[in-house]
Amino acid sequence: MANWLVLLVACVSINLSLSSKEPEYFSPRSCKELMERYEIEEDGLYYLTSPTGVKYQTYCDMTTAGGGWTLVASVHENNLYGKCTTGDRWSSQQGGSPNVPDGDGSWSNTVTFGNAEAATSDDFKNPGYYDITAENVAVWHVPNNERVGRWKLTSFLRYHTESKFLRSYGGNLYNLFKIFPVKNNAGSCPANHGPSVPVVYDAGDASFNHNLFGPHVRARTDPGFIMFRAINYEKAAMAICLGVKPKDCNTEHSCIGGSGYFPEGSPRQCGDFTGLDWSGYGTHVGWSASKQLIEAAVLIFYR
């Protein structure tokens, strides 16, 4: 009996020792590496390490379309009535001011903000956004303030690319937006739009996605795509068009993450969700998106 107790204590001590040493060698750079090298198969929050040694926590989707998707960012709008004031981290912390025409430049800089667990309650950007070399992106639309363990269950849209398009743009959105900067007067529409890429749906479908926009928007967009750096008639730039490809230059009604200043002026057009409420908040008429789309965070993943 005594020998058995000694052996048990020794085994526990060894396990505790390994656990305490784990951070020294368990340092994957992405959720894909975490899945492939360490056979992790469950969705959830995990710690990753950047090439410069920065450890950070993020969400890993280990089950969709083969798994290995790393959450690198979220775009969130908690108060469309207050847009063009302050606090939109992807557009401008200073509001829609002509004195800051390019905003904060968050789409093409290394500033990080927020935390993974609160990614549906606030804007979020981690080092993986600019450090991970990826091939594809995925987007989730999750209701605001949803708890992390319910993201997949409550997401009403999830779609991803499969064309490995990021290989042509430096391996991530940080480098893509260096080529196609999200800033005021970066070019004209439609000549200077960025790439549009077909998507595959994991939740919802292209028709459902399209119908979340108002009728004027549906008539001027093609469903089943994600588009990057769209420019409108006033030469303002937006970062991402949500599951659609604009056919004209009214891009502020289907795209998010705009530059800091919009020439058409506040409060109708500016901020992270730009002009999604043009014909009223969540009215789903004219140029306005549905309340369901407006009151959801946009989560961005790499693989």
UniProtKB/TrEMBL annotation:
<dbReference type="InterPro" id="IPR002181">
    <property type="entry name" value="Fibrinogen_a/b/g_C_dom"/>
</dbReference>
<feature type="signal peptide">
    <location>
        <begin position="1"/>
        <end position="19"/>
    </location>
</feature>
<keyword id="KW-0106">Calcium</keyword>
<keyword id="KW-0430">Lectin</keyword>
<keyword id="KW-1015">Disulfide bond</keyword>
<dbReference type="GO" id="GO:0005615">
    <property type="term" value="C:extracellular space"/>
</dbReference>
<keyword id="KW-0732">Signal</keyword>
<dbReference type="Pfam" id="PF00147">
    <property type="entry name" value="Fibrinogen_C"/>
</dbReference>
<dbReference type="InterPro" id="IPR036056">
    <property type="entry name" value="Fibrinogen-like_C"/>
</dbReference>
<feature type="domain" description="Fibrinogen C-terminal">
    <location>
        <begin position="22"/>
        <end position="72"/>
    </location>
</feature>
<keyword id="KW-0479">Metal-binding</keyword>
<dbReference type="GO" id="GO:0070492">
    <property type="term" value="F:oligosaccharide binding"/>
</dbReference>
<dbReference type="GO" id="GO:0046872">
    <property type="term" value="F:metal ion binding"/>
</dbReference>
<protein>
    <submittedName>
        <fullName>Intelectin isoform X1</fullName>
    </submittedName>
</protein>
<dbReference type="InterPro" id="IPR014716">
    <property type="entry name" value="Fibrinogen_a/b/g_C_1"/>
</dbReference>
